[in-house]
Amino acid sequence: MILEVRELTKAFGGLKAIEEVNFKVRQGSIVSIIGPNGAGKTTLFNCLTGILPSTKGRILFEGKEITYWKPHAITAKGIARTFQNIRIFAAMTVLENVMIGQHSRSKEGLFTAVMGTTTFRKEEETIKSKAFEYLEFAGISGYADVLADNLPYGCQKRLEIARALATEPRLLLLDEPAAGMNPQETLELMELIRRIRGWGKTVIIIEHDMKVVMGISDWIIVLDHGVKIAEGTPNEIQNNPDVIEAYLGKEEVF
Amino acid sequence: MLTKGLPFYTILLPNLLKFNAMFFQQIINGLTVGGVYALIALGYTLVYGILELINFAHGEIYMIGAYLGIIFLGIFTAAGLTEYSLLLSLVLTFIMSTLVCSAYGFTVEKLAYKPLRNAPRLNPLISAIGVSIFLQNYVMLTQGATDKVFPHVIPVTIIEFSNVTMTTLQLFIIIVSLLLMAGLHLFIMKTKTGKAMRAVAQDKIMASLLGINIDRIISVTFIIGSGLAAVAGLMVAMYYGLVNYSIGYLVGIKAFTAAVLGGIGSVPGAMIGGLVLGLIESLGAGYLSSEYKDAYAFIILIIILLVKPTGLLGKSEGPRP
C-alpha cells in the first residue's frame, strides 16, 4: 500500500468537508475519486498534499505518517499534484516551469551558483536535459522556449502534468485533468495517464468525465457530502445503488 | 537669495539656458543618488513581489547599514587594520555591515511579519510601521540623537573632464550599484533559488507543491533586500559623511517612490525607477530649484498614482488566470 488514509476529517468551522474517510491505495494502480460537486474531493487532495491541515485522522505514505507535514516536505517525500484550474507560472518559459519542478531533487547550492563553478553548470545542464525529457514525455517538447502563458489550453494542462512529474513523485494526484478538453484531447490524456502508471507511478485522479473514470481506473472511491459511500472496481461502482442515488437522486427516478 | 521671493516660474527660464556642463554634472549626481535609491527600492519590490507587503521598516535597515559602517570602520581603525591596509578594512566593513544588516532583516521578518502571514493585509503593514518606529528609537538610544561623522579615511580624488567633475567616490557608488543590480538580475534569472523566488512570487501554493520551502525563500528575500540596503546605507554615509538615526525615513520613502515608479513587484522596474528618480531629483535641483529637491519625489509619486498606478514596468493586478 502506497497510501493509507485513516479516519481523515477536515472541518471548516462547523462544516465537515470530509468526515472519517478511510481508504487504501495499492502501489502502481490508478484510482479515481468521484462524487457530486461539494463532495470534498479537492479538500481531500488539499489535505493529502499538506495545503490544508487535517482536523483529525492520519495519512500514511509508504507506511510513514505525513499528516501534519508542510507541502514542500510532502513533495520531497514523493507526492505531486495538479490543480483543477491551471496554475502554471505564466511569466516563465515552458522549460523553466518544469525546471522549477526539480527544485527539491537538485543539490545546487547558493555558493556554487554564485561562483559559477563547473559543478553548477553541470548540475544546470542535468536539470535542463531532465526537464526536456519530461516535456517530451508529455508531448510538448516543441514548446520548450515558449512563454507558458502563450501555450494552448490543452498543452498548459500537459505542462502541469510534466511539471508535477519533474518532482519525481511516486504518487501523482490529478485534479480534473480532463476538464475543458475535447474528446480527442481526452483520449490522449488517458493514454498519458496510462503511460505514467507504466512508469511505475501510482495515480489518483479526481474526474467528472465518466468515460475517463470507467476507462482507466483500477479502483474507484465515491465521496458524497464528505463521506465515503462506496469503493470498488468500475464494474461494482456502476451497479452500486448508493452511488446511483448520490448522482441521480432517489430510486423513483428510474 | 535673489530667487527667494519670486514666483516659481521666474527661476525657470534663466536656468534652462545654462545647459551643457551643468546638465552632465547633474546627470552624474543623479546617477549617484539614483543608484542608491535603486538598491533600496529593490528591497521594497522584492518583498512586495513575494509577500504583497510594503516593508516600511526597510528605510531603517538602510539607516542601520550606515551606522554599522561607521561602527565597523571604527573597530578596524582602532585595531590598526585601516593603517595597515585601507582597502582591506573597507572591504571588511562592507562585508560585515551587509551580514549584520541581513541578520536584522531576517530577524524582523521572523518576529514581526511571519506570525502575521495569514492575518488580513493591514496587520503586517501596521507591524512594519511599528518596527520602523522601534528601530529608529533603538538606534537613537544606543547611538545618540546627534549626527555621527563617517571617519575621513578615504582619499577622494576629483576626476575632471572639460567642465564636469566627478569624485572617485561617485564613480565608486555608480559602479557598485550597477554591479549589484546586474548580479541580482543574474541571481534571479539563473540560479535555482532565484527561480524559486520567481515561482513563489507568482503562486506560493503551487511553488510549495513543487518542493519549494516558502519560509526559506521569504527569508532569502529579506536577507538579499537588507544586504542591498546595507550597501546603500554605507555608500551614502561615505558620500555625505554624516549619519543620523532619522535618515532612513526620507530615503526610505523616496526609494519606495522609486519602486512604485518602476512598478512595485518588478525587479527591473525598481532599478529603472531608482535611477530615473535620482536623475529627476538632481536635474530638478539644477534647473528648477534645489529648495524643492525633496518634493520632486513626492510630486512624481502623486503623478504616477494618478496616471499609471502600475508604474513603468508593473503589470495590472487582474484576477489569477
What does this structure look like?
The complex is a heterodimer of chains A (254) and B (321). Chain A is globular and about 60 Å long. In chain A, strand 4 (56-61) and strand 5 form a beta hairpin. Helices cover 39% and strands 23% of the residues of chain A. Chain A is an alpha/beta fold and 254 residues long. The model of chain A has no long low-confidence stretch (mean pLDDT 89). Chain B has 321 residues and is mainly alpha-helical. Chain B has one domain. Helix content of chain B is 72%, strand content 4%. Chain B has 13 helices and 4 strands. In chain B, the strands form 2 sheets. Chain B has a two-stranded antiparallel sheet with strand order 1-4. Chain B has a two-stranded antiparallel sheet with strand order 2-3. Chain B is globular and about 55 Å long. The mean pLDDT of chain B is 89. The A-B interface holds A 49-51, 70-72, 75-76, 80-81, 83, 86-87, 89-92, 96, 99-101, 103-106, 108, 110, 113-114, 149, 163-164, 166-167 and B 187, 190-193, 195-196, 198-199, 202-203, 205-214, 321.
Give a summary of the structure in a few sentences:
The complex is a heterodimer of chains A (254) and B (321). With 254 residues, chain A is α/β, with parallel strands linked by helices.
